[in-house]
């Protein structure tokens, strides 16, 4: 019943937004006619933590949603159900980001590379990835991770833990969590993966 009510409310909200915002609808229609409709996708911001010796190390990712021009942080929602549909992509992004962090020094460049996650394996040129070693990291992780078995998550307040079976039959975990303790550059409540 709760899911049905949320669906009804979301449908009403979409209807109201669409009917109240004729200018935006007309702009989208004009963009469609010009072939410039913007594609929405997830993008990522790297999270770091200080190691015992004071050096930064890769901790995980904050998850954003938008297009090539702008994106917003996704807020963690304890009742959300679409996470199960996205966990494969987010796990792939985490894996690629971790490998790139220790290979490419520039965090901003890595984050721009991660915009290709949604369109792998065929969009390197669109996002300016020309280095064959970088492409190799993406492709290896893409093909190694695309058919991993992902189990239903354990749900906790502010966290979901997904058990994922690797190629060798072992199991590792990825956590979706509500970010609360980052260095102020990410809003509290943002959806993170570690």
**The number of domains:** 2
Average pLDDT value?
A: 82
Helix count equals 5
3D shape: globular
What is the end-to-end distance? Answer: 32 Å
Strand % is 15-25%
Give the helix level as a range of percent. Answer: 25-40%
Which structural class do the helices and strands define? alpha+beta
Low-pLDDT windows of residues: 1-34
Radius of gyration: 19 Å
Helix/strand order = HHEEEHHHEEEEE
Q: Report the sheet with the most strands, covering strand number, pairing sense and barrel closure.
A: 8 strands, antiparallel
Subunit organisation of the chains? single chain
* Total beta strands: 8
List the SSEs and their pairings.
Blueprint: H1 2-20, H2 22-33, E1 41-50, E2 56-66, E3 71-73, H3 83-101, H4 107-113, H5 132-145, E4 149-150, E5 154-156, E6 159-165, E7 171-178, E8 191-193
Antiparallel strand pairs: 1-2, 2-3, 2-8, 4-6, 5-6, 6-7, 7-8
């Amino acid at each position: 019943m709760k899911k049905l009510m949320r669906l009804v409310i979301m449908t009403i909200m979409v209807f109201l937004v669409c009917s109240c915002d004729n200018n935006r609808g007309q702009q989208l229609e004009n963009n469609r006619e010009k072939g410039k409709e913007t594609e929405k996708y997830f993008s990522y911001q790297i999270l770091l933590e200080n190691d015992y010796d004071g050096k930064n190390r890769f901790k995980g990712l904050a998850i954003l949603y938008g297009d090539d021009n702008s994106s917003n942080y996704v807020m963690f929602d304890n009742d959300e159900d679409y996470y199960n549909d996205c966990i494969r992509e987010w796990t792939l992004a985490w894996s690629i980001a971790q490998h790139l962090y220790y290979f490419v020094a520039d965090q901003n460049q890595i984050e721009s590379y991660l915009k290709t996650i949604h369109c792998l394996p065929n969009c390197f040129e669109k996002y300016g990835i020309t280095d064959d070693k970088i492409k190799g990291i993406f492709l290896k992780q893409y093909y190694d991770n695309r058919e991993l078995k992902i189990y239903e998550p354990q749900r906790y307040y502010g966290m979901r833990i997904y058990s994922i079976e690797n190629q060798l039959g072992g199991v590792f975990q990825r956590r979706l969590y509500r970010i609360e303790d980052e260095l102020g550059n990410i809003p509290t409540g943002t959806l993170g993966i570690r």
